[in-house]
Task: structure prediction
Amino acid sequence: MKGICNFLRSVAVINLCYSGIIIHGEASAEEDAAIALPVHAIQRGAPDSPTRGYAPGNVGCPSNRPVIRAASILSASETAWLSLRRNKTIAPMTSFLNRANISGFDASEYISRIANNPTALPNIGIAISGGGYRAMLNGAGFIAAADSRTENSTNTGGIGGLLQSATYLSGLSGGAWLVGSLYANNFSIVTTLRDGSPGSSVWEFGNSILKGPKSSGLSIANIADYYDILEADVDSKTNAGYETTITDYWGRALSFQLVNASHGGPAYSFSSIALDESFVSGETPFPVLVADARAPGTTVISLNSTVYEFNPFELGSWDPTTYGFAPLRYIGSNFSRGVIPLDAPCVRGFDQVGFVMGTSSSLFNQFLLQINSTTIPNKLNDTLTSILERIGSNENDVASFKPNPFFGYNNNTNENAQSTQLTLVDGGEDGQNIPLSPLIQPFRAVDVIFAVDSSADTAFYWPNGTSLVATYRRSLNMTLENGTAIPAIPDQNTFINLGLNNRPSFFGCDAGNLTGEAPLLVYVPNAPYVIQSNFSTFKPDYNNTERNLMIQNGYDVATMGNGTVDREWLTCVGCAVLSRSFTNTGTEVPAACIACFDRYCWNGTVNSTLPISYEPASMLEISAANGGDFINRGFMMVVLVVSFSVLIIL
Result:
């Protein structure tokens, strides 16, 4: 964070009512400004909770009563959806690959030839890491860059269309806020959410979540009113007979910032995404959020903890421990041994969207726990204290799923089978801060994963590959891997010493050298372009200038400064998308792709020497110093953080 104060002083004079995505390189001033046009955020459809509020409610069970299914196959719902989605990716993928301009390669002819072959058609996943608002905003920049709906994203150097070509989009912790917010707002464009709409507090982070949204346009006059609403909502769940924890308050608070609806949409559920027309028709990728299980009687989350996922259809785990999935819409129901007793009602509304996002980021409960009596009304302070006294201070980061959907299920392997409560925590607490687990499941057959890493691994909050290392080590655990595999990953010191953490790096380029089927990993680490983007994970607020610059920086990370750092980056992204398809079809790899793989693929070299303090300078400044040939001249380790200014054309 050194130098950030001087930098912010330099940009403080810029009045950003809204900010456009900055286009570098050959783009014109008109193109720079075009994306600044404000668009109002889209609201969700009707809420799905039967109580029309935060509390779950009893409903009649459908004729085909909900059951827990074994994780031995994809769900019928996901399988049916995939047939629609894969077809919908063909046209945008063709357009994207044509723009990639891979010399000597006819993208239209190739995709047309393999379009009906699901093992040959590239299957793309995008994973957004945890890391608080830093991760959310950096990830938002990547999504904006990959979204063809973002103005200028398909211009020279842009990677627009990658999102439309993707099948899966996963998020964890801060990344879960991004993914959840996109889908809770009808898959709005990032810039639409950034610019907001009259009377909405969506993506307004200038007020800390501890203070609540600004009162303009909202029926919240002051902080006390805000906490009264939070308390009333959580009380309604408690009074309905359900266990509540700090995560309930955290999730409700998140919703005010992330869901464009009155009071953050207390009745909106994550499973209602499956009812949205754009999702039903396969127009959007498949969203997945990740959480970890905490074993009964323990407080430590280890690498062998069971990993759970939330998707629009289900909650469950592929791990050989639980190895089952519950229908998400009905998880508040009293399942026992995989079924709901015939004399018991079904329950809906337990999967409130903020609660699900809060579960994946429950580490941030300490935001609420740090409130003192001058900030929080005494009544709510007493309530939170009472909760902590009941569950214990060592369990303040948990989300309680009671009744446990997996009670009595897989008794021999499921460590929670005899517990009436399933306890889930932040998905990054096991060290896997990039949500790769859902995307490396063999049944999903993902070919390439763009892993956007905003982790705070180093002393100055930059990523160093720790999450990839954790997932790689877990994949080597024969009792847990269950068919999952990722390419070999070097140690964290190697990431820094070889510059693998300050620009995109590919892992697993040579499929022939892998011990099993594994996707190509495109590692996209947070790095400074237009701002020193290494804010603390627990920074509680971002003014509009900081927010917009962080999104811009993420956009530049995704596009390498719109090709300024490497003018062939779009070509190399296209080659990464096609890599496994070339292998599966026996297609000769074009020379342009061979050059890209030589440039970006980790070649197996290891340098585990303890590195110097990692404090990178602006990638754009390094590129300019090298005459615009940053990649081919190597990766400079710059110790001094430089100050720089940003010209934003509005």
Summary: The longest strand covers residues 286-293.
